[in-house]
């Protein structure tokens, strides 16, 4: 006589985290959607945004940038991401250094860690989980529009101030505080 033990039910299928290349493809395709881009209300004084459904459970945003606005220095709380310019021209200043995430308030940055990119309409870039940057619309007269995606959805954002080589942690924001 043979005894058989029932097999456990298979675990529910988990979708793999979207790679940064998939996030970059999504933001570029979305930035090329002229109807969606035109649907974003633009404010002459402050940034505007619409939350989007990103691929694989990622968090995504369509953001309007009035002339002369920017994010200030920040990171994405350990999320990887991508963004693409849909209209106008954006400048990204970033640090080519991995910063510790805990246990510091002020860091002195080494020479040579600063990077600057200009992203015109259709240009995009992906970044890893420890990316620190600021994004700016330096135009004195034109709005810019961009699409951003993050995975996992942003658990927090750290905001920094910068004076020369000194980077100072100023604030930690949680979801709902930037929406």
* CATH C-level label of one domain: Mainly Beta
- Our count of helices gives 2
Radius of gyration, taken over Cα atoms and rounded to an integer in Å = 19 Å
Helicity range? 10-25%
Number of DSSP strands?
A: 12
Distance between the termini: 64 Å
CATH topology of one domain: Jelly Rolls
Which runs of at least 5 residues are low in confidence (pLDDT < 50)?
Answer: 1-13
What is the CATH homology-level superfamily of one domain?
Answer: Jelly Rolls
- Report the portion of residues in β strands: 35-45%
Mean pLDDT: 91
Helices and strands: which structural class? Answer: mainly beta
Describe this structure as you would to a colleague.
This protein has a five-stranded antiparallel sheet with strand order 1-2-10-4-8, covered by helices on one side. Strands 3-11-12-6 form a four-stranded antiparallel sheet, with no helix packed on it. Residues 1-13 have low confidence and may be disordered. It has a domain at 20-96 and 110-155: Jelly Rolls (Sandwich). The protein has helices at residues 20-31, 34-39; strands at residues 48-53, 59-65, 73-74, 80-87, 89-95, 106-108, 114-120, 124-127, 133-136, 144-151, 157-163, 166-173. The protein has 179 residues and is mainly beta. Strand 11 (157-163) and strand 12 (166-173) form a beta hairpin. The chain contains two helices and twelve strands. The chain is 10% helix and 40% strand.
Entry keywords:
single chain, 179 residues, mainly beta, Jelly Rolls, four-stranded antiparallel sheet, globular, disordered N terminus
């Amino acid at each position: 006589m043979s005894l058989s033990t029932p097999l456990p039910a298979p675990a529910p299928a988990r979708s793999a985290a979207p790679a940064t290349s998939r996030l970059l493809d999504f933001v570029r395709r979305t930035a090329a959607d002229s109807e969606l881009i035109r649907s974003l209300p633009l404010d002459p004084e402050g940034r505007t945004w619409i939350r989007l459904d990103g691929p694989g459970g990622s968090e995504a945003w369509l953001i309007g940038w009035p002339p002369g606005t920017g994010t200030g220095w920040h990171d994405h709380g350990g999320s990887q991401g991508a963004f693409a310019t849909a209209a106008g021209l954006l400048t990204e200043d970033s640090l080519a250094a991995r910063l510790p995430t805990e246990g510091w308030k002020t860091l002195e940055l080494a020479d040579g860690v600063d990077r600057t990119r200009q992203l015109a309409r259709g240009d995009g870039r992906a970044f890893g989980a420890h990316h620190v940057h600021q994004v700016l619309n330096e135009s004195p007269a034109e709005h810019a529009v961009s699409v951003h995606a993050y995975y996992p959805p942003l658990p927090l954002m750290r905001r920094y101030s910068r004076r020369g080589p000194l980077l100072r942690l100023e604030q930690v924001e949680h979801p709902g505080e930037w929406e």
